[in-house]
């Protein structure tokens, strides 16, 4: 690991306002004098392009669409990328706000905006955009979504950053692991999130449950189907704790009614493409499931914390080589952890860490 330096590097100057120059356009926002980190903007743009690609072409190329359940396809990287970008932005933006009240006000306002647009865009208000048909049945409104997940992660991690700022600025020192020691509260929160997630995932008892088929194209429309579970610690589609928590807290009518698991072999003969659900398919193939639900959104906080850590490296380490050393070593540790989970037969729970299905 590289040592932490308090001196400002050339790149840190790019994060601070400067007098107007001919090249300042690439570093400033169009709205004013706020500086921009070009590499972060480029990564954000590439992630948006990737999102458009997998959304538009995923139906024709299922290998890039969301994995039906276990697995990780190209589309499954989009949400972690966005959360990582949010984390880096938190580290850079809140560094310039010294007043905690002002910082909390800014974070609260942005969280409310994300929640508002999330509910508006994914809550069910737009039934047929091409026909300009709008309106929502509040009894069937979808509460969770992509922007809501980002809002939760942003709120939690930003508040940790704000209220621990004094401690890690005072304790900033040199040493191989100084960056981890200075921001230890972030890692305590990360460990707590991990423990809560795994304890709930493996310790929650999932009883039998039932649901009403709301698909008007189905011959079973309006009928009540049941799913047999009565188990604990299962990670399969019908009997996992993630779905159970969402059904209990959100209500099954407020969950996503077209989950990716409908493309699995158990549900359709056209798998991995979308297709008609088989007549002899298990009942859960027709059930709702929330890919951006409560428990999986709590685990998504970890992706944002990793982004904040990488943002801190930009702020505190001098020079590209020092940053790259730290980023690569951190990435290798996370990769080794992932491979350990995979080869110790714990990889199936990673399906729930997928931030979008």
From TrEMBL:
Residues 1-21 have a biased composition (Basic and acidic residues). Residues 36-161 form the Heparan-alpha-glucosaminide N-acetyltransferase catalytic domain. Coiled coil: none annotated. The keyword Glycoprotein does not apply. Keywords: Membrane, Transmembrane, Transmembrane helix. Residues 1-28 are annotated as: Disordered. The keyword Transmembrane applies. The chain crosses the membrane at residues 37-54, 74-95, 107-126, 146-163, 184-205, 294-315, 327-345. This is Heparan-alpha-glucosaminide N-acetyltransferase-like protein (DUF1624). It comes from Arabidopsis thaliana (Mouse-ear cress).
């Amino acid at each position: 690991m590289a040592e932490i330096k308090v001196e400002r590097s050339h790149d840190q100057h790019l994060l601070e306002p400067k007098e107007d120059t001919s090249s300042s356009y690439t570093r400033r926002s169009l709205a004013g004098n706020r500086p921009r980190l070009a590499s972060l903007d480029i990564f954000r743009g590439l992630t948006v392009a990737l999102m458009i690609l997998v959304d538009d072409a995923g139906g024709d190329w299922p290998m890039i669409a969301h994995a039906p359940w276990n697995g990780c396809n190209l589309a499954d990287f989009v949400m972690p990328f966005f959360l990582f970008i949010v984390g880096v932005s938190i580290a850079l933006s809140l560094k310039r706000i010294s007043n905690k009240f002002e910082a909390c006000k800014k974070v609260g306002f942005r969280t409310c905006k994300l929640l508002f647009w999330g509910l508006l865009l994914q809550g069910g208000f737009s039934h047929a955009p091409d026909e300009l048909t709008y309106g929502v049945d509040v009894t069937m409104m979808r509460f969770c979504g992509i922007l809501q997940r980002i809002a939760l992660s942003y709120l939690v991690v930003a508040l940790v950053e704000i209220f621990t700022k004094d401690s890690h600025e005072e304790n900033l020192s040199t040493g191989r692991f100084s960056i981890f020691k200075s921001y230890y509260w972030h890692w305590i929160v990360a460990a707590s999130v991990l423990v809560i997630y795994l304890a709930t995932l493996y310790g929650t008892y999932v009883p039998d449950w039932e649901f009403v088929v709301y698909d008007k194209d189905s011959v079973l429309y309006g009928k009540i189907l049941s799913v047999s579970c009565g188990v604990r610690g299962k990670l399969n589609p019908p009997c996992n704790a993630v779905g159970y928590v969402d059904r209990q807290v959100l209500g099954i009518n407020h969950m996503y009614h077209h989950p990716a698991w409908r493309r699995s072999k158990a549900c359709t003969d056209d798998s991995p493409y979308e297709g008609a659900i088989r007549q002899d398919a298990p009942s859960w193939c027709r059930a709702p499931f929330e890919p951006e639900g409560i428990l999986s959104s709590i685990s998504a906080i970890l992706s944002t914390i990793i982004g904040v850590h990488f943002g801190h490296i930009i702020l505190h380490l001098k020079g590209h080589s020092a940053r790259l050393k730290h980023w690569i070593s951190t990435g290798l540790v996370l990769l080794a952890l992932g491979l350990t989970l995979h080869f110790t037969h714990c990889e199936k729970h990673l399906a729930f860490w997928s931030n979008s299905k």
